[in-house]
Amino acid sequence: MNHIQKLLFITALLTSSMAFGQLTEDPDDRRSQGKDPLRTQTPEGRPLPFGQRLRFGGGINGFRFGNPFSLGVSPVIAYQATEHLIVGVGGTYNYTRYKAYTNTNTTVPYRTLNQYGGRGFLMYEFIPSILPNLYLHGEVESTTINDKFEQPGLPAPATYSLTSPLLGLTYSQPISRRFGVNLTALYNLNYTNSVAASLIYSSPFVLRLSFF
Questions:
Q1: Of the candidates 208, 191, 88, 186, which has an alpha carbon nearest to the alpha carbon of residue 143?
Q2: Is the CB of residue 143 less than 8 Å from the CB of residue 117?
Q3: CA-to-CA distance for 8 and 143, rounded, in angstroms?
Q4: pLDDT tens digits, 4-55
Q5: Secondary element (H or E) of residue 19
């Protein structure tokens, strides 16, 4: 009896695995019909598993050689909630270092900026029949920056924080069903002339190139 039970269990496991394989490979089959693959369901209307709706990626931002030297990374995890709605979270880290130099008889000292934060965002494809892959984009980003001068007698290290709501548009060029190149243009609704805003954003307009 034990052997029969084991045989039945293995048969059921193989059958369920085959069914799962059929479920997860269907969306891309639409390409052979000249149609874009579905994002959240199979052509038969069955919902895709959670893992197949996830997107992973991010971007490199603030890349600059010379003085200052700057480099940042911004990983992203996004979830295809519906055929036209994407929700996601992301993180940001940016390192900037100014070397000492003299400008108009003024010596600019060594300075290091460490910027880090996180954000949550929504992207909604609002006119897919007219212009597919164009999304309304809204997010809230919280950022902290540590500002440190590295010579004695200068201002003490300071920390600034800013939470900003941003609104704009994202155009996504799909590479596959779960990956694309995204160009985003946002406007910072909380931008002021404060030290924090000028160090973190430098402008109320935010442009990004990302991959997910």
A1: 191
A2: yes
A3: 56
A4: 555 445 444 444 443 434 444 556 667 667 677 889 998 888 899 999 999 9
A5: helix 2-25
- R_g of the chain, CA atoms, integer Å: 24
Residue 178 backbone phi and psi in degrees, to 5: -120, 20
Question: What's the farthest any 2 CA atoms get from each other in the chain?
Answer: 93
- Element at 13 (helix H, strand E): helix 2-25
Query: What pLDDT does residue 28 have?
Result: 65
**What's the Cα-to-Cα distance from 205 to each of 8, 140, 185, rounded to whole Å?**
62, 14, 7
pTM for this prediction? 0.77
Average pLDDT over residues 44-70: 87
Q: Which SS3 state, helix, strand or coil, does residue 33 take?
A: helix
Q: Which helix (H) or strand (E) holds 22?
A: helix 2-25
Note whether 88 and 115 are within 8 A (CB).
Answer: no
